[in-house]
Amino acid sequence: MNNLRKIAEICNTSADFNGKILFDEPMRERTTFKIGGPAELFIEPADEKSLMFVLNELHALKLPVFILGGGSNLVVSDKGIEGCTLSVAALKGIRFDGACLHCQAGTSFDEILDFCILQGLGGLENFAGLPGSAGGAVYMNARCYEKSISDVLAGAEYLCGTKAQDKKHYGMNAADWDYKKSPFMAMHGSGAQPLILSASFKVYRDEPARIKQKCAEYMEDRERKGHFRYPSAGSVFKNNRAFGKPSGQIIDEAGLRAFRIGDAQIAPWHGNFIVNLGNASADNIKELTAQIRTEVKKKNGFELECEIIFCGK
Ligand SMILES: Cc1cc2nc3c(=O)[nH]c(=O)nc-3n(C[C@H](O)[C@H](O)[C@H](O)COP(=O)(O)OP(=O)(O)OC[C@H]3O[C@@H](n4cnc5c(N)ncnc54)[C@H](O)[C@@H]3O)c2cc1C
């Protein structure tokens, strides 16, 4: 029996594990781009105890692990993902302690903002309509309407390495963060594998009606800008202040509006979005982003930096 089958059997037969275990799970079903081949083994623990259990087993067998949040910033390879894809999407929960909102990694911003409206807690409205999970937003240092996650984060609980015993607390230190950069990305870059378990956000008391109104305005703006018209992973390139204009405008000015490879197209209504018109492959997206970078470099001299993450085999 190979090690993936071994892990599946251990989880399936243990009273310490609850959750989903699937072989060859198509990642197009689990990403907002609707792109990606199969995850060899897909595990979605139902709770933190099950997550700890499976992490210890994965660690013991030294299996490669890819951590999946809401899948809203990813282009998964057409060949799929090797080893175990560990989804934190089922780890949900929100608790307010009088000062901070503690959200488990898999909690979505829709759920967080519904809670904020109900409890009269302000400060997170800018993130209304942000797809994906709390953990993914912390990892990416998501930024919406001039507010970054690092502006509202008080701290996080995380694991480093894939051993459950390595649970750590991250206390907010602004020096660790930059535009669309987090210390968790930096840890990843240096070979460690951080898994964010929960995030604590700073909030304040406010009128539910006012919070609801602000959220609705941000949502309407996203709708107006066509964010949800077709499957995508949001903005493809980071905005670089040194370029003096947004990446979408730079792409438009390079004459690339609506340029298409296969079913991957630069959204005619948003230069920095690539949309999947139906059957786009990860290779189509890769090729299109490469061509955009080359054309922009040739015409304006700017080096666009990808925000979307290419992963898998
Ligand atoms: C329509 C649309 C609009 C968008 N608008 C915005 C926007 O306004 N601003 C913005 O910043 N982004 C935007 N995005 C991009 C995306 O929603 C964000 O980057 C989001 O925060 C990613 O979260 P996720 O849970 O989906 O992460 P995923 O896509 O699942 O993963 C992204 C990365 O984070 C890692 N990761 C995920 N969860 C964890 C965890 N718990 N622990 C450790 N690592 C983890 C993954 O391994 C991966 O490397 C948009 C996307 C779409 C589709």
Describe the protein.
The chain is α+β, with helices and mostly antiparallel strands. The protein has helices spanning 3-13, 48-60, 109-119, 134-140, 149-152, 183-189, 208-224, 247-253, 282-300; strands at 19-26, 38-45, 65-68, 74-76, 81-87, 94-96, 100-104, 121-122, 143-144, 147-148, 153-160, 167-171, 194-202, 204-205, 260-261, 264-266, 274-276, 309-311. It folds into 3 domains: 3-87, 2-Layer Sandwich (Uridine Diphospho-n-acetylenolpyruvylglucosamine Reductase, domain 2), CATH 3.30.43.10; 94-224, Uridine Diphospho-n-acetylenolpyruvylglucosamine Reductase, domain 3, CATH 3.30.465.10; 241-311, Alpha-Beta Complex (Uridine Diphospho-n-acetylenolpyruvylglucosamine Reductase, domain 1). It contains 9 helices and 18 strands. The strands form 6 sheets. It has a 5-stranded antiparallel beta sheet with strand order 6-7-13-11-12. A 4-stranded mixed beta sheet has the order 1-2-5-3. Strand 11 and strand 12 form a beta hairpin. Flavin-adenine dinucleotide is lined by residues 32, 67-74, 88, 105, 130-133, 135-137, 139-140, 142-144, 184, 194-196, 227-228, 232-234, 309. Flavin-adenine dinucleotide binds next to strand 3, helix 4, strand 9 and strand 13.
Taken as a percent bin, the fraction of beta residues is 25-35%
Give the distinct bound molecules.
Answer: flavin-adenine dinucleotide
Q: What is the CA-CA span between the terminal residues?
A: 22 Å
Backbone CA Rg: 20 Å
Helix content: 25-40%
- How many beta-strand runs? 18
The spatial strand order of the largest sheet comes to: 6-7-13-11-12
Identify the CATH class of the largest domain: Alpha Beta
Structural class: alpha+beta
Number of domains: 3
The CATH architecture designation of the largest domain is 2-Layer Sandwich
The chain-level mean pLDDT equals 95
As residue ranges, the low-confidence spans are none
**Which of globular, elongated, flat, extended, rod-shaped describes the shape?**
globular
Sheet with most strands: 5 strands, antiparallel
Separate helix tally: 9
Can you tell me the CATH topology of the largest domain?
Answer: Uridine Diphospho-n-acetylenolpyruvylglucosamine Reductase, domain 3
The ordered string of helix (H) and strand (E) elements is: HEEHEEEEEHEHEEHEEHEEHHEEEHE
